[in-house]
Write a structure and sequence with these properties.
Blueprint: H1 2-7, H2 11-142
């Protein structure tokens, strides 16, 4: 014990060691154990939350790809419908234009025939009146 005395260790160090051991035992049972338990519970719940968040993220990616696939399919169907409607409208347009052209050509032909008939009648009238006019002119000149 003389060595302990020379080192400056006496009975107070033993009392301090005993009190430290009792305090450590008390704190580990009362403070540290509940804290460790709460920390483990928190990590367990957080881990479950992370897994749930990852699951939701994967689900959202799946839903987004499904949405994009359906959107592409729907856009293809819409394009097909629009293209068929355009081709149908073009066919109807061409048919209407052809009908209008034939009708206008008929009207032009009718008008041309009417005009040529009118010109022929006017020419015939002029021919028939030419002699009378020539006679009237010559009689006026000779008077």
């Amino acid at each position: 014990m003389d060595i302990f005395g020379q080192l400056g260790i006496n009975t107070t160090a033993a009392f301090q060691f005993v009190f430290f051991s009792i305090a450590l035992l008390f704190l580990s049972k009362v403070v540290f154990a509940p804290y460790a338990h709460a920390l483990e519970e928190r990590q367990r719940r957080t881990k479950g939350g992370e897994d749930l968040a990852l699951e939701y993220q994967n689900k959202s990616v799946e839903l987004q790809t499904e949405y994009e696939t359906k959107l592409r399919t729907l856009n293809g169907e819409i394009k097909t419908i629009v293209d068929s409607a355009k081709s149908q409208a073009n066919k109807e347009y061409e048919a209407l234009i052809a009908n209008v052209r034939t009708d206008s050509e008929k009207l032009v032909q009718e008008n041309r025939s009417k005009i040529s008939a009118a010109v022929q009648t006017a020419a015939a009238d002029l021919k028939s009146q030419t002699t009378a006019v020539a006679m009237a002119i010559t009689t006026k000149l000779l008077k």
